[in-house]
Amino acid sequence: MSDIDSDMLGFAKKEFGENCELEKRTEWSYSFRCGSKSYCSISRFMLEPGLEVSASEIRQRWPSMSVRERMDFASNFGQKKAWTDNETGILKIIMNGGDDHIWSSCALAVLRHSDRNRAVEFLMERLVRCGSDFSRLNYAQALGIARDRRAAAVILPYYNKYLKAMEAEAVTGVPDNVFFGPIPYHAFLSIAGDLFKIEGSEEYEQAIRKYFDHPNEQVRYWAEHALGTEGPTTAKRNADYRNKRGNR
Question: Considering the entire predicted model, what is its pTM?
């Protein structure tokens, strides 16, 4: 499949590797196969600055769009660079007619709502009511970026929950798979980082820094990322990435 501009394919290869091949093109995104088991996706709103859609068109189409189509649109629409009243109108349609799968996929875009108070209240409500860790972390991430102190109270119960779960490491040790193992490293460090952004508390900073020396590299990377710090692990990964790109 090669239904893509050569410059766009070149961008994908530069970002994700020379083995990148277009797998699927939708109305709003490009999906690439980047190896036998690796896939990536790029928003057409990001690659095609001239791609526009009106709020009136989305309002008319939204009721008949499938969940998959809504997800594809919402997750990619949020990456649009230019933002006007038209985009806010589209965002309102999504916020009024979606679910947590759709809303969490564009949680960061919710912050671009013209009414910041409305955006924060929406994200806090979804954080409390959603039923999945995936959605919860996306909402908390957006609230951390918003730095609205009201959000700390709704994030704190999940921090305490994940903190308690982290105690299992002292008994069971580090699992072979830190991504899918029983210890919620990523969830805990992500939530702690969100609270640190909001409150700047030493408690959360120290809770994260504790994992800077963790025996697992991925956990160390998550900890550094949670504080926005280019520590040794992040610096090494960034250097490796630059070297790979330089050798292409």
Answer: 0.87
